[in-house]
Design a protein that fits this description.
Elements lengths: L2 E4 L5 H11 L4 H4 L2 H13 L3 E7 L5 E8 L5 H23 L2 H11 L13 E7 L10
Antiparallel strand pairs: 1-2, 2-3, 3-4
């Protein structure tokens, strides 16, 4: 049986590990577990962040959906309010690949559309299912 609950900051390690498994070759994954933990913690702590986890019968996190109640300025605020901790968490990965520094800043600052009509709505930022659990029926 799958249960859906709000994610807590204390669960960011499991969230980051699941992200790493599901999005193995993605840019954010390349920034490392420390970064992912800080990134997801910053979303969970944000008053505009929405974070839901799907748990199996053993209370194991098998999926999650992360979003925001309003897209406008969400990533900019996350970056502004958590710049030092996110930078430190990603530093080892960024030092090894300096071009990733501009890539991450661009990713955070250019995710908004030029059509302001779409920025006032809730948005889904990430949805993830454990690759080993995909296709299994809800028991």
């Amino acid at each position: 049986m799958i249960t859906v609950k709000l994610l807590k900051v204390e669960e960011t390690k499991n969230i980051a590990l699941l992200h790493q498994r599901a999005f193995n070759n993605f840019f954010l994954t390349s920034l490392g577990i420390k970064f992912l933990k800080k990134f997801y913690a910053s979303i969970i702590k944000s008053e505009k962040g929405v974070a839901l986890g799907a748990y199996d019968g053993n209370n194991e996190l098998v999926g999650f959906a992360i979003g925001a109640t309003e897209k406008k300025g969400f990533y900019k605020n996350i970056l502004k309010n958590n710049f030092i901790s996110l930078s430190l968490a990603a530093s080892a990965s960024l030092l090894g690949k300096p071009n990733n520094i501009s890539r991450i800043i661009k990713a955070f600052l250019t995710t908004e559309t030029s059509n302001n009509e779409y920025l006032n709505y809730a948005t889904l930022l990430s949805i993830c299912v454990n690759p080993e659990k995909k296709g299994q029926k809800n028991r």
